[in-house]
Amino acid sequence: MKSQRPVNLDLRTIKLPITAYTSILHRISGVILFVGIAIMLYGLDLSLDSEEGFATVKAGLTSPLAKFVIWALLSALLYHLVAGVRHLIMDTGIGETLEGGKRGSKIVIAVSVVVIVLAGVWIW
User: What's the cofactor (predicted)?
Assistant: First the structure.
């Protein structure tokens, strides 16, 4: 049986709604947080192991690469937090319509950009 449905596998031409992008970013930020927790726990373990370990971690956190990693982890945390608050609000019945979902996604992106930029200013 042949299907007459068109098949579009070129991901560059598929137009997703803004709600899909916020959902995908929410999942990606969760994965980043999962991996980032392992990195941060290793640094905590190393710093609590001895005075030399603490000095090593302290010296390592002053490098630009470490600041970028910290900013990336903090950005993932902040985006995940803002998107999670949106989901909690939607659980109460607010913003469940198509238009409300689009408006909520725009608000999530706007608020996330502001707090991520503020976090970058704070770190550097």
Answer: heme
Q: What is the CATH number of the domain that holds 71?
A: 1.20.1300.10
> Is residue 6 a part of any domain in this protein?
no
Question: Domain residues for 64?
Answer: 18-123
Are 87 and 79 in contact, with CB atoms under 8 Å apart? no
Phi, psi of 9 (to 5 degrees): -105, 5
**Annotated binding residue at 80?**
yes
- Return d(Cα 26, Cα 17) in angstroms, integer: 15
For residue range 71-98, what is the model confidence (pLDDT) as tens digits?
Answer: 999 999 999 999 999 999 999 999 999 9
- Residue 56, in any domain of the structure: yes
> 8-37 pLDDT, tens per residue?
677 677 788 999 999 999 999 999 999 999
Count of structural domains within the chain: 1
